[in-house]
Design brief:
Elements (H helix, E strand, L loop, with lengths): L6 H11 L9 H16 L6 H10 L11 H12 L6 H10 L10 H11 L6 H14 L5 H17 L7 H22 L1
Helix pairs in contact: 2-6, 3-5, 3-6, 4-5, 8-9
């Protein structure tokens, strides 16, 4: 999905996505989110391409594993970097939405970004296991017993949802595999 991003903003964001402490929340994740957006667009999911792609670029631009304000900090960065951009407020709103991944059913842009951000959950088992290991590495300072308990709680919340993905195209592509991957990871954390 081709969206024109000014060179200085793109350079800053790529620097951020490639910070050495990132193992999952890195440029590969960004690339996968952008690819998932393209796949959803190809499946006729309707959303405003420019603000959603910009939000993908900004959604984990600020990432510190133990911070509870990454989404807010990334949205603040978007507001500053896109100060004169007509999509600034929508981009920031979408970035903040990635804290909960619970878009309203009629929020086409939120649905697209949330589903694309979660697409890794529905990846093949090998890629999912790599993702899970990379998340653990990002949280390496958290004691194992505590990490396992918190991770199980989060993953169980996903399985308790009626749907992990908000859109029909995402559910058709990734829901069943995501549920199997998550259940398998929960079992491994027990």
């Amino acid at each position: 999905m081709a969206v024109d991003i000014p060179h200085d903003i793109r350079t800053d964001l790529l620097h951020r996505w490639n910070e050495p402490h990132r193992r999952h929340h890195n440029q590969r994740h960004l690339d996968e989110v952008l690819a998932a957006l393209a796949e959803l667009r190809g499946a006729d999911l309707s959303f405003a391409e420019r603000p959603v792609v910009l939000a993908a670029w900004f959604h984990d631009a600020v990432y510190k594993p133990l911070s509870g304000t990454n989404e807010e900090d990334s949205a603040a960065l978007a507001r500053i970097a896109l100060a004169d951009d007509p999509d600034r407020d929508e981009v920031a709103r979408l970035v903040e939405l990635t804290k909960t991944h619970e878009p309203a059913p009629d929020d086409a842009n939120g649905v697209a970004l949330s589903d694309a951000d979660f697409a890794v959950l529905g990846a093949d088992p090998e890629r999912y296991d790599e993702y899970a290991a990379n998340v653990r590495t990002e949280f390496r300072r958290v004691p194992g017993f505590l990490y396992r308990r918190k991770r199980r709680e989060l993953l169980t919340e996903f399985l308790d949802r009626p749907h992990i993905f908000a859109s029909t195209p995402a559910r058709e592509r990734w829901e069943a595999t995501a549920r199997a991957n998550i259940a398998r990871e929960i079992q491994s954390l027990s």
